[in-house]
Amino acid sequence: MKIAIYCFFCKVFIVSVFLLSGISLFAQESSDTQVAIEKNSTQDPPATTITDEEFKKHAGETIYLNFSHVGDAVVKDLVIGKPPQPGTPAFIADDVSRVVTYTYATQAQIDRANAAQYGLFSFAALIGPNFNAEKLPQTAAFFNQVNADLTLANDSAKKTFRRHHPLRDGGFSYPSDHAANMFFYARLLTEIYPSQAKQFYQYAKELSQDRVILGGHYPADVVAGEAYGFYLAKEFFNNASFQQKWNEAKAEIVALIPSVSKGD
Q: Are 190 and 196 in contact (CB under 8 A)?
């Protein structure tokens, strides 16, 4: 996964060489966007010395995740890598890609992004209208616990890397929690409906990209979120209690929705 993230930065940098030749497009940005970018450049840069302090702080709060192990993997193994540092070619390429993406987004793309829902049951768009909390109460209750762990994992990673959001004060953007969660859910759902795996992952990718379309995330945030979501899925599966509860949730889902036809 680290190699994939490295390749992503290389590709973005190469593309940015061509994009930068048309740098005049930045003059088309709104004044609000320009102010936000200038403000972001004055904030503290992402962490260059990373510790697992944030993970240790919440180690006793998780239900299924081994936070000591997750923290070690993020900090020592860098399972999602560090965000690009301000002033580097990688950072410039990432920001150019972000600005180009939302500057040239169509109104239809913007409307879709604003209407996007992020959660397990948002996959009802592919699975069908019966895939909802009301008809799957056991699954919904289980994922309330899972989501509590996901929130801690995402928040701890963000506070570890400290990459500021490009268009708003406060909070951090790396990795994207929306992307991490959607790819985590997609990974789980492929166990129930393996023939839909491609559609699940494509849907997760589209919703993750919506965060860039709205200008609030850098592309690297989303790529890191995807990698983090897959990593967290593996960590959840390592927990016997999670496996038991997930098997019960799968049984409830399959009893209600035995299969999903391609094209639904």
A: yes
